Protein backbone atom coordinates (compact mmCIF):
# COMPACT_ATOMS: atom_id res chain seq x y z
CA UNK A 1 0.00 0.00 0.00
CA UNK A 2 1.11 3.58 -0.66
CA UNK A 3 2.22 5.78 2.21
CA UNK A 4 -0.14 8.70 2.66
CA UNK A 5 1.84 10.28 5.52
CA UNK A 6 5.57 10.19 6.08
CA UNK A 7 7.17 11.57 9.21
CA UNK A 8 10.96 11.97 8.97
CA UNK A 9 13.29 12.54 11.92
CA UNK A 10 10.80 14.81 13.63
CA UNK A 11 11.78 16.54 16.86
CA UNK A 12 10.26 19.19 19.09
CA UNK A 13 12.13 20.77 21.95
CA UNK A 14 10.31 22.96 24.48
CA UNK A 15 11.94 25.31 26.92
CA UNK A 16 10.47 24.80 30.35
CA UNK A 17 10.96 25.87 33.94
CA UNK A 18 10.34 29.31 35.38
CA UNK A 19 13.29 29.76 37.69
CA UNK A 20 15.71 27.31 36.07
CA UNK A 21 15.38 27.02 32.34
CA UNK A 22 15.59 23.49 30.97
CA UNK A 23 14.87 21.84 27.64
CA UNK A 24 12.25 19.12 27.17
CA UNK A 25 12.52 16.88 24.12
CA UNK A 26 8.78 16.30 23.72
CA UNK A 27 9.29 14.56 20.35
CA UNK A 28 12.70 13.05 19.73
CA UNK A 29 13.75 11.99 16.24
CA UNK A 30 10.53 10.22 15.28
CA UNK A 31 10.10 8.62 11.84
CA UNK A 32 7.23 6.50 10.48
CA UNK A 33 4.86 6.05 7.56
CA UNK A 34 1.11 5.51 7.45
CA UNK A 35 -0.53 3.70 4.55
CA UNK A 36 -3.90 4.44 3.01
CA UNK A 37 -6.79 2.96 4.99
CA UNK A 38 -4.65 1.93 7.96
CA UNK A 39 -5.64 2.41 11.60
CA UNK A 40 -2.57 2.98 13.74
CA UNK A 41 -2.72 3.57 17.49
CA UNK A 42 -0.18 5.73 19.24
CA UNK A 43 -0.04 4.71 22.89
CA UNK A 44 2.11 5.80 25.80
CA UNK A 45 1.92 7.32 29.22
CA UNK A 46 1.02 10.91 29.93
CA UNK A 47 3.71 13.33 28.77
CA UNK A 48 5.30 10.90 26.30
CA UNK A 49 4.78 13.33 23.40
CA UNK A 50 1.68 11.97 21.64
CA UNK A 51 -0.27 15.24 21.41
CA UNK A 52 2.84 17.21 20.46
CA UNK A 53 3.47 14.80 17.58
CA UNK A 54 -0.21 14.98 16.52
CA UNK A 55 -0.15 18.80 16.56
CA UNK A 56 2.99 18.95 14.42
CA UNK A 57 1.40 16.63 11.85
CA UNK A 58 -1.76 18.78 11.90
CA UNK A 59 0.37 21.86 11.20
CA UNK A 60 -0.68 23.45 14.47
CA UNK A 61 2.75 23.37 16.13
CA UNK A 62 6.05 23.96 14.31
CA UNK A 63 8.70 21.23 14.68
CA UNK A 64 12.22 22.05 15.87
CA UNK A 65 13.58 19.82 13.11
CA UNK A 66 12.49 17.12 10.69
CA UNK A 67 9.78 16.87 8.05
CA UNK A 68 6.17 15.80 7.62
CA UNK A 69 5.14 14.68 4.16
CA UNK A 70 1.48 14.32 3.22
CA UNK A 71 1.03 12.80 -0.22
CA UNK A 72 3.71 14.68 -2.21
CA UNK A 73 3.69 17.85 -0.10
CA UNK A 74 6.13 18.84 2.60
CA UNK A 75 3.61 20.06 5.16
CA UNK A 76 5.84 22.64 6.87
CA UNK A 77 7.74 23.82 3.79
CA UNK A 78 5.33 23.63 0.83
CA UNK A 79 2.03 24.77 2.36
CA UNK A 80 2.14 28.56 2.58
CA UNK A 81 -1.12 30.23 1.55
CA UNK A 82 -4.51 30.10 3.25
CA UNK A 83 -5.78 28.02 0.33
CA UNK A 84 -2.92 25.53 0.87
CA UNK A 85 -3.90 25.25 4.54
CA UNK A 86 -7.60 24.83 3.73
CA UNK A 87 -6.64 22.05 1.33
CA UNK A 88 -4.56 20.43 4.08
CA UNK A 89 -7.22 20.64 6.79
CA UNK A 90 -9.82 19.25 4.44
CA UNK A 91 -7.60 16.24 3.85
CA UNK A 92 -6.12 15.94 7.33
CA UNK A 93 -8.77 16.39 9.98
CA UNK A 94 -8.64 16.11 13.77
CA UNK A 95 -10.94 15.07 16.59
CA UNK A 96 -9.76 15.90 20.12
CA UNK A 97 -10.46 14.57 23.57
CA UNK A 98 -12.80 17.27 24.79
CA UNK A 99 -15.73 17.74 22.40
CA UNK A 100 -16.89 20.91 24.26
CA UNK A 101 -13.69 22.69 23.17
CA UNK A 102 -14.59 22.27 19.48
CA UNK A 103 -17.87 24.18 19.84
CA UNK A 104 -18.41 27.89 20.40
CA UNK A 105 -20.90 28.09 23.32
CA UNK A 106 -22.64 31.11 21.72
CA UNK A 107 -23.53 29.35 18.47
CA UNK A 108 -25.93 26.51 17.75
CA UNK A 109 -24.24 23.20 17.00
CA UNK A 110 -25.47 23.34 13.37
CA UNK A 111 -22.64 25.80 12.74
CA UNK A 112 -19.86 23.18 12.79
CA UNK A 113 -21.73 21.12 10.19
CA UNK A 114 -22.32 24.18 7.99
CA UNK A 115 -18.64 25.08 8.22
CA UNK A 116 -17.76 21.55 7.10
CA UNK A 117 -20.06 21.98 4.11
CA UNK A 118 -18.35 25.24 3.20
CA UNK A 119 -14.96 23.53 3.42
CA UNK A 120 -16.02 21.00 0.78
CA UNK A 121 -17.49 23.77 -1.40
CA UNK A 122 -21.20 23.21 -0.72
CA UNK A 123 -23.57 26.09 -0.06
CA UNK A 124 -24.96 25.90 3.52
CA UNK A 125 -28.79 26.09 3.75
CA UNK A 126 -29.28 24.63 0.26
CA UNK A 127 -31.50 21.56 -0.19
CA UNK A 128 -28.38 19.50 -0.86
CA UNK A 129 -26.75 20.81 2.31
CA UNK A 130 -29.79 19.79 4.38
CA UNK A 131 -29.72 16.32 2.88
CA UNK A 132 -25.98 15.90 3.55
CA UNK A 133 -26.40 17.07 7.17
CA UNK A 134 -29.26 14.62 7.73
CA UNK A 135 -27.26 11.77 6.20
CA UNK A 136 -24.24 12.63 8.34
CA UNK A 137 -26.33 12.63 11.53
CA UNK A 138 -27.92 9.33 10.53
CA UNK A 139 -24.41 7.88 10.08
CA UNK A 140 -23.57 8.69 13.69
CA UNK A 141 -26.95 7.58 15.03
CA UNK A 142 -28.42 11.01 15.83
CA UNK A 143 -31.86 12.27 14.78
CA UNK A 144 -31.86 15.83 13.33
CA UNK A 145 -34.49 16.94 15.88
CA UNK A 146 -32.37 15.59 18.70
CA UNK A 147 -29.49 17.99 18.05
CA UNK A 148 -30.10 20.63 15.36
CA UNK A 149 -31.03 24.10 16.57
CA UNK A 150 -29.48 23.44 19.99
CA UNK A 151 -26.59 25.05 21.82
CA UNK A 152 -23.61 22.91 22.97
CA UNK A 153 -24.61 23.12 26.66
CA UNK A 154 -27.95 21.50 25.81
CA UNK A 155 -26.24 18.32 24.58
CA UNK A 156 -24.19 15.57 26.21
CA UNK A 157 -20.46 15.01 25.58
CA UNK A 158 -21.30 11.85 23.65
CA UNK A 159 -23.80 13.68 21.41
CA UNK A 160 -21.27 16.45 20.75
CA UNK A 161 -18.52 13.96 19.93
CA UNK A 162 -20.90 12.24 17.48
CA UNK A 163 -21.64 15.60 15.82
CA UNK A 164 -17.88 16.04 15.38
CA UNK A 165 -17.76 12.62 13.73
CA UNK A 166 -20.68 13.69 11.51
CA UNK A 167 -18.50 16.67 10.55
CA UNK A 168 -15.64 14.32 9.73
CA UNK A 169 -18.05 12.18 7.68
CA UNK A 170 -19.07 15.29 5.67
CA UNK A 171 -15.46 16.31 5.05
CA UNK A 172 -14.26 12.74 4.38
CA UNK A 173 -10.60 13.50 5.10
CA UNK A 174 -7.90 11.19 3.82
CA UNK A 175 -6.26 11.19 7.25
CA UNK A 176 -8.06 11.49 10.58
CA UNK A 177 -6.04 12.21 13.70
CA UNK A 178 -8.11 11.32 16.73
CA UNK A 179 -6.38 12.42 19.96
CA UNK A 180 -8.03 10.50 22.81
CA UNK A 181 -11.46 11.02 21.24
CA UNK A 182 -13.28 8.60 23.53
CA UNK A 183 -11.60 9.00 26.90
CA UNK A 184 -14.36 11.28 28.24
CA UNK A 185 -17.21 9.05 27.05
CA UNK A 186 -19.16 6.16 28.54
CA UNK A 187 -18.48 2.65 27.31
CA UNK A 188 -21.40 2.35 24.87
CA UNK A 189 -20.73 5.72 23.17
CA UNK A 190 -17.06 4.76 23.03
CA UNK A 191 -17.93 1.50 21.27
CA UNK A 192 -20.13 3.30 18.76
CA UNK A 193 -17.44 5.84 17.90
CA UNK A 194 -14.83 3.14 17.44
CA UNK A 195 -17.26 1.32 15.13
CA UNK A 196 -17.75 4.51 13.09
CA UNK A 197 -13.99 4.86 12.64
CA UNK A 198 -13.83 1.32 11.35
CA UNK A 199 -16.65 1.99 8.87
CA UNK A 200 -14.94 5.19 7.66
CA UNK A 201 -11.77 3.27 7.02
CA UNK A 202 -13.53 0.45 5.18
CA UNK A 203 -15.99 2.58 3.20
CA UNK A 204 -13.92 5.66 2.41
CA UNK A 205 -10.36 4.42 2.84
CA UNK A 206 -9.73 6.93 5.66
CA UNK A 207 -6.38 6.49 7.39
CA UNK A 208 -6.68 6.93 11.15
CA UNK A 209 -4.01 7.81 13.69
CA UNK A 210 -5.66 6.99 17.00
CA UNK A 211 -3.94 8.52 20.02
CA UNK A 212 -4.90 6.69 23.16
CA UNK A 213 -4.01 5.64 26.67
CA UNK A 214 -6.22 2.63 26.29
CA UNK A 215 -4.34 -0.48 25.14
CA UNK A 216 -7.58 -2.51 25.14
CA UNK A 217 -9.23 -0.32 22.49
CA UNK A 218 -5.97 -0.05 20.53
CA UNK A 219 -5.68 -3.82 20.46
CA UNK A 220 -9.16 -4.21 19.03
CA UNK A 221 -9.14 -1.54 16.33
CA UNK A 222 -5.57 -1.17 15.09
CA UNK A 223 -3.57 -2.63 12.24
CA UNK A 224 -0.41 -1.44 14.00
CA UNK A 225 0.43 0.01 17.38
CA UNK A 226 3.23 2.52 18.08
CA UNK A 227 4.46 2.77 21.65
CA UNK A 228 5.80 6.19 22.57
CA UNK A 229 8.09 6.81 25.53
CA UNK A 230 9.93 10.03 26.36
CA UNK A 231 9.42 11.46 22.89
CA UNK A 232 10.53 8.37 20.95
CA UNK A 233 8.61 5.57 19.29
CA UNK A 234 10.33 2.74 21.10
CA UNK A 235 8.34 -0.16 19.70
CA UNK A 236 5.94 -0.77 16.83
CA UNK A 237 4.14 -3.78 15.42
CA UNK A 238 0.82 -5.57 15.02
CA UNK A 239 -1.50 -5.58 18.08
CA UNK A 240 -0.50 -9.20 18.72
CA UNK A 241 3.21 -8.37 18.47
CA UNK A 242 2.91 -5.50 20.90
CA UNK A 243 0.52 -6.97 23.44
CA UNK A 244 1.51 -10.63 23.35
CA UNK A 245 5.24 -10.35 22.64
CA UNK A 246 6.42 -6.95 23.80
CA UNK A 247 10.17 -6.56 23.65
CA UNK A 248 10.69 -3.25 25.42
CA UNK A 249 10.56 -3.12 29.25
CA UNK A 250 8.37 -0.01 29.13
CA UNK A 251 5.80 -1.73 26.88
CA UNK A 252 5.68 -4.63 29.35
CA UNK A 253 5.01 -2.18 32.17
CA UNK A 254 2.31 -0.46 30.14
CA UNK A 255 0.59 -3.81 29.52
CA UNK A 256 0.91 -4.78 33.18
CA UNK A 257 -0.94 -1.58 34.10
CA UNK A 258 -4.03 -2.58 32.06
CA UNK A 259 -6.85 -3.78 34.37
CA UNK A 260 -6.94 -7.56 34.86
CA UNK A 261 -10.42 -7.88 33.38
CA UNK A 262 -9.08 -6.74 30.02
CA UNK A 263 -6.21 -9.18 30.21
CA UNK A 264 -8.47 -12.14 30.93
CA UNK A 265 -10.82 -11.11 28.19
CA UNK A 266 -8.49 -10.35 25.34
CA UNK A 267 -5.39 -12.52 25.87
N1 LIG B 1 3.57 24.25 24.96
C1 LIG B 1 4.41 23.56 25.72
N2 LIG B 1 5.43 24.16 26.36
C2 LIG B 1 6.31 23.46 27.12
N3 LIG B 1 6.27 22.14 27.27
C3 LIG B 1 5.27 21.45 26.65
C4 LIG B 1 4.30 22.13 25.85
N4 LIG B 1 3.42 21.20 25.36
C5 LIG B 1 3.84 20.02 25.84
N5 LIG B 1 4.94 20.15 26.61
C6 LIG B 1 5.69 19.07 27.27
O1 LIG B 1 6.02 18.12 26.29
C7 LIG B 1 5.89 16.80 26.80
C8 LIG B 1 4.92 16.00 25.95
O2 LIG B 1 3.60 16.52 26.13
P1 LIG B 1 2.35 15.93 25.31
O3 LIG B 1 1.17 16.80 25.61
O4 LIG B 1 2.74 15.78 23.90
O5 LIG B 1 2.16 14.48 25.97
P2 LIG B 1 1.01 13.40 25.77
O6 LIG B 1 1.70 12.11 25.46
O7 LIG B 1 0.02 13.89 24.79
O8 LIG B 1 0.38 13.31 27.22
P3 LIG B 1 -1.15 12.98 27.66
O9 LIG B 1 -1.31 11.50 27.52
O10 LIG B 1 -1.21 13.44 29.08
O11 LIG B 1 -2.08 13.75 26.77
C9 LIG B 1 5.48 16.97 28.25
O12 LIG B 1 6.62 16.90 29.05
C10 LIG B 1 4.86 18.35 28.30
O13 LIG B 1 4.98 18.91 29.57
MG1 LIG C 1 -2.09 14.28 24.90
TrEMBL record:
PROSITE patterns for this protein: ABC_TRANSPORTER_1, ABC_TRANSPORTER_2
Superkingdom of the organism of origin: Archaea
Domain ABC transporter: 5-255
InterPro entries: AAA+_ATPase, ABC_transporter-like_ATP-bd, ABC_transporter-like_CS, P-loop_NTPase
SUPFAM superfamilies linked: P-loop containing nucleoside triphosphate hydrolases
Keywords of this entry: ATP-binding, Nucleotide-binding
Gene3D superfamilies: P-loop containing nucleotide triphosphate hydrolases
Single GO MF descriptor: ATP binding
Cross-referenced PANTHER family: ABC-TYPE DIPEPTIDE/OLIGOPEPTIDE TRANSPORT SYSTEM, ATPASE COMPONENT (PTHR43230), ABC-TYPE DIPEPTIDE_OLIGOPEPTIDE TRANSPORT SYSTEM, ATPASE COMPONENT (PTHR43230:SF3)
Protein name as annotated: ABC transporter related protein
Organism this protein belongs to: Thermosphaera aggregans (strain DSM 11486 / M11TL)
Organism ancestry: Archaea, Thermoproteota, Thermoprotei, Desulfurococcales, Desulfurococcaceae
Amino acid sequence: MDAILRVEKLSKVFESGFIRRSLVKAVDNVSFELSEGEIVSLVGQSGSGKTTLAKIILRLLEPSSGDVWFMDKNVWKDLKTLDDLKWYWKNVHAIFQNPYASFNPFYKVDRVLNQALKLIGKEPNSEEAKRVIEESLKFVGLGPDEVLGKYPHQLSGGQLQRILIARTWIIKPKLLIADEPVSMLDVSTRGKIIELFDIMRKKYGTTILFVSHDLGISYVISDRIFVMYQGKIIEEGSPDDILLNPTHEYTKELIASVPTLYRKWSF
